[in-house]
Amino acid sequence: xxxxxxxxxxxxxxxxxxxxxxxxxxxxxxxxxxxxxxxxxxxxxxxxxxxxxxxxxxxxxxxxxxxxxxxxxxxxxxxxxxxxxxxxxxxxxxxxxxxxxxxxxxxxxxxxxxxxxxxxxxxxxxxxxxxxxxxxxxxxxxxxxxxxxxxxxxxxxxxxxxxxxxxxxxxxxxxxxxxxxxxxxxxxx
Length: 189
Hints:
This protein is an alpha/beta fold. The protein has 5 helices and 7 strands; from the N terminus they run E-E-E-H-H-E-H-E-H-E-E-H. The protein has a single domain, classed as Glutaredoxin. Strand 6 and strand 7 form a beta hairpin.
């Protein structure tokens, strides 16, 4: 008896140069009710850094979220908003932001955290680990027209660099060809 192999077409994920996948997720924007949703369309006309982390109340994740919060004004100065996402609930996000940094929390952050509890958005962005149910550390820069311009996905145990994210955002905004190690103020090609 021979086994028949079924070939499935590859899943469609977020791709550079194409419109970023839409989302409409519950957020911490209203910490009292936790009923305010944030939509991808809310950020049209501005740059957006949209990033995922695996789970709240873990070890590497707080270092990234607090670093992005500490640099938030620098992103705003570049006409860029930040939205963070995980597969945890908005209730877990609220508890995490209400727990001080020195007690394994993140304290208040300056940008909204969204709950991808259904995991549909993490799947659409290609960062869902089906085995663990967590999102990998995915970071996406979306331009004002909604086009995905940059993405990086790292292993769950490696944190991202906020400085590098700022540098890449500035390079994308420079409008030219930016060589390796380009920094703001350098010439483009």
